[in-house]
Design goal:
This protein is an alpha/beta fold. It is 31% helix and 16% strand. It has a six-stranded parallel beta sheet, with helices on both faces. The model has no long low-confidence stretch (mean pLDDT 97). The structure holds magnesium ion and zinc ion (ZN). The site of zinc ion has 5 residues, from loops.
Length: 177
């Protein structure tokens, strides 16, 4: 079974401007992310994005808008030789009570099955406590980054395994293990 890095998107990979990222032009990488992804990819980690996109349920943007943002992200990464194994998103709102919206683990469970991943050899990197809760509930080692929300959502009462400045620092720590 393979090992993976499960990565939240907004506030970890790309800058979170406080609103929804619904247009490709709003998608901007956080410093160091490309290098970090490249290093992890070369060390045979599968890279999998796990993102809540509740703005879809709220009618703020459509799944097509989201696809266009992801198309941009994927093409910028491909230009750098970085391959994402998957992008999983939850389009629902909290009130939909779905199994996929983090802190629930539905998206990670799906990715684990579809890509033959051992979650116990894998990592979850996120900027919200909901990311950390989902990662922990799957048995992953968790990193909370100080970019984006930096844990200030305080939705879940959970301790990350590590607190780091940003995704680049998380990648360095993982590669040193
Ligand atoms: Mg986030
Ligand atoms: Zn959902």
């Amino acid at each position: 079974m393979d090992k993976a890095i499960f990565i939240d998107r907004d506030g970890v990979i790309n800058k979170d401007f406080g609103g929804y990222i619904s247009r490709p032009e709003d998608f901007k990488f956080i410093e160091g992310v490309i290098e970090a992804l490249k290093n992890l990819n070369q060390r045979e980690f599968k890279l999998i994005v796990i993102t809540n996109q509740g703005g879809i349920a709220k009618g703020e943007y459509t799944e097509q808008d989201l696809e266009s943002v992801h198309k941009k992200m994927v093409s910028l990464l491909e230009n750098e030789g970085i391959r994402l194994t998957g992008i999983y998103y939850c389009p629902h709102h909290t009130s939909d009570n779905c199994d996929c919206r983090k802190p629930r683990t539905g998206m990670i469970e799906k990715a684990v099955k579809e890509h033959n991943i051992d979650p116990k050899k894998s990592f979850f990197i996120g900027d919200k406590t909901t990311d950390i809760q989902a990662g922990k509930d799957m048995g992953c080692m968790t990193f909370l980054v100080k970019t984006g929300y930096g844990g200030r959502d305080k939705i879940c009462n959970v301790e990350p395994d590590f607190i780091v400045e940003d995704f680049f620092e998380a990648s360095k720590r993982i590669l040193e293990m």
